[in-house]
UniProtKB/TrEMBL annotation:
This is Starch-binding associating with outer membrane. Its main location: membrane. It is found in: Cell outer membrane. InterPro entries: SusD-like_N, SusD_RagB_dom, TPR-like_helical_dom_sf. Belongs to the SusD family. Transmembrane segments: none annotated. The keyword Cytoplasm does not apply.
Amino acid sequence: MALVGAALLGFTSACEVTELVPANLIPDSEAFATGARIESAVLGVYESAQRGFYSNAVQRGYPFGAANVEQGDLRGEDMYNDQAFYEITYNNSYSPVSANNVGMWISLYRMINRLNIILESLDVAVTNGVITAEAGNAYKGEMLFMRALAHHELLIHFARPYSDDPSSAGIPYRVFGINDVTKVPDGEAVPRGTVGEDYTQLLKDLDAAEGFLPEGGAFRANKGAAIALKSRIKLHMKDWAGVLAEYTKLTSKYAVTANPATPFRGGTSSDNIFSFVNSAAANPGVNGALPSMYGNPNLGARGLVKISPIIWRADFWNAADTRRTSMTTQSSTGIFTSKYLDATTYTDPNVILRFSEVVLNASEAYARTSKMTEAVTLLNSVRSRALPVSVPPYTVDGLGAGVLDAIFNERRIEFLAEGRRWPDIHRLSGEGLMPGIPLKATSRSITKLSFYESGAIPMDHSLAYTSHLFVWPIPLDELQTNISSPIAQNPGY
């Protein structure tokens, strides 16, 4: 079982991921003996998310440094891969041993195992008077939120979508920790289950997290984050009433910012619900930080990923939109996002949940239930704040039968360079509204700015939904090391 190595590491390291000072090298037997050590263990989970594991190394951005964003973008067509780092993701050439997908599997399950160990220890700590019941519940909420976030990331990459068939093979949903070799057989015995069963557990975790968590800032899991993640998950389930119910809970607490750049400028805003924080002392490093990977090389970044000319030249993206006029930069080789700016010390947060997403989720839910006026009103609340007053808002009559398409296109613009394109391709392909991964600009071909202006764009790397490559393979290490109750490989690999 690939996560066993992490299980036996316990809580041996942590970092200043939330501007607090956790302890280092705490043995498992003592990790929950004081309130400070419990806090350190919890912060270690945030660290394992922020800069976890990749090929026996840290500081490569797995799973929630830059990796989740890059994987989510480069499985789609709107961001363009310019180098080798994520080429197997971009051109669909992954295998059971390719590093990008294997790194996501291992780092996510390592993170899950750490938080499960904490969850199993909190009630004892409360009973022993180490922490208060209130503190224990808050920690439970944080860990349950993180568990759902990690498992959903696994589901959208390694399983077919809920929107196709909830009875299809899911992923092992791990709800207990392994910190001793005697527990390994129990871990190996956890089956893949079904996608439907996994989604049921996701919502169970998040409902509990919502009850436990307090309101709070964006850099720790909070009540709003649990609700926002439920909104996302219910969208994948086509539970339109559920999407609207979660949206309603947040309307008095958050708001779309007038300036689309505000959520990415390091502080808190009305649009920020949950982010993984970075600092100069604790970040995923040059090979795993968003400003390094996505930034303009003229401004000191590595510039491995840039905006694709496909979306830049799309007729639905207005030329006067501030998300292209003031949130991008140009070099001689192409156009780069400026959502992430600090290519020197890598302090830009990885924004995971924004109210803008919850709003567009609700807009889609209204459209799916034939409430077009409400759908278009919410759509305009995101779109129009990025456009000059001379550009009229959408109307129901003007869009006609194209309301859903307008919402899908707005998601492509608003969440560009945030890793949200693949989850939409995943769920919409499962539903039959997309045929799979669309054509992309051919890897290594977009070498100059003129491709963004006119002329033919070299195209390749589309993938039919029916292809076995649409979902990633279970890593070979997972199959080979699980000797007592091996799980099934995805068909075709």
